[in-house]
């Protein structure tokens, strides 16, 4: 499978715990994006990497959220001290710059987080 | 502030009919307008996209109409099929302006009855 892979698919955690999600983009894609999608809403931008550099961050990304992309390959998104409002689908996407014009992003199937 | 407004929220169409979804945007810096299709449990997938230098783009049964002066664009699905039943999102971004992020509408749940 050469698509965008996200793990885990589902995560249930207790409020106050830390969680980490992983995204493996399409190997030749140098751009990686994180979005959050709540029920009945469109995806909301969180952050964007070009190679290992984090170039843009949303105000939605509070200080409890951190994302990394070491070596410009896979990426992790960590949420510290989770709150019930963090419950959402976390989507990762990748693109190869110019291909985004023609082929858009390729999204993964997401990690569904439930905070109880 | 919602930068991309999408309507209707839901749409029911008979097989063979035309599905029309509308979006309006506010930021004149937007210069890329894609439509994404999302099935339950899956991430969104690009359906078709347009840039503001053209007023219409057609790919198979899917057509985007773009009105730059009105800051509106729409998706038309001709000969709608039950397999088209999904949630559709319009989006906008300004990659030429240096921003890679997509701003999505709230989505339209399309149901095509057989």
β content of chain A, as a range? over 45%
Q: Count the DSSP helices of chain B.
A: 0
- Average pLDDT confidence of chain A is 91
Overall SS class of chain B: mainly beta
Summarize the biggest pleated sheet of chain A.
Answer: 7 strands, mixed
SS content category of chain A: mainly beta
Tertiary shape of chain A: globular
What about the largest sheet of chain B? 6 strands, mixed
- N-to-C SSE string of chain B, H for helix and E for strand: EEEEEEEEEEE
What is the subunit organization of this protein? heterodimer
Provide the helix percentage of chain B: under 10%
Number of strands of chain A: 11
Query: What is the terminal-to-terminal distance of chain A?
Result: 33 Å
Rg of chain A (CA only): 13 Å
Shape of chain B: globular
What is the average per-residue confidence, as pLDDT of chain B, rounded to a whole number? Answer: 93
Biggest interface, and residues per chain? Answer: A-B, 27 and 25 residues
Which percent band covers the strand fraction of chain B?
A: over 45%
H/E element order of chain A: EEEEEEEEEHEE
Count of DSSP-assigned helices of chain A? 1
Poorly predicted segments of chain A: none
